[in-house]
Amino acid sequence: MKGIREEKSCCFSYFSDGTPVPDVLTEKEAVKFLRLDDGETKYPSKSLEYYRNQGILRGTRVGKRLRYLKSELLNFLENQTRITNGEMS
C-alpha cells in the first residue's frame, strides 16, 4: 500500500528483568547483556576491557564514553561459541 512503510523483521532481545536491549549499550548494559554480572566474574568491566585489548570485541567511542553495539556483542558471542565448540570461522 502506498504510504505504508514496511519495516524489516527483526528479533528483539530483552534483559532478564524484561526490559528491551537497546541497539547501543553502555558498559554496564553490555556487562548485563553478556551476563558477566552473574557473580562468577570478579571484575566484569575488566573482562570487557580484556576482550577489547585482545581485539575480539569492539567498542565504539561516543564523546568521552565507550559504547557497544548490540550487533557487536552478538557477533562476539557467535565467535566465542565457535571457539568453545572447536569450530574455526
Describe the structure.
This protein is 36% helix and 11% strand. It has a domain at 24-84. A three-stranded antiparallel β-sheet has the order 1-3-2. The protein has 89 residues and is an alpha+beta fold. Strand 2 (60-62) and strand 3 form a beta hairpin. The model is unreliable at 1-9 (pLDDT under 50). It comes from Limihaloglobus sulfuriphilus. This is Helix-turn-helix domain protein.
Silhouette: globular
Evaluate the radius of gyration.
16 Å
Task: Please give the count of helices.
Answer: 3
C-alpha termini separation = 42 Å
Instruction: Please give the order of strands in the largest beta sheet.
Output: 1-3-2
Q: In what range is the share of β-strand residues?
A: 5-15%
* Low-pLDDT stretches: 1-9
Organism: Limihaloglobus sulfuriphilus
Protein name: Helix-turn-helix domain protein
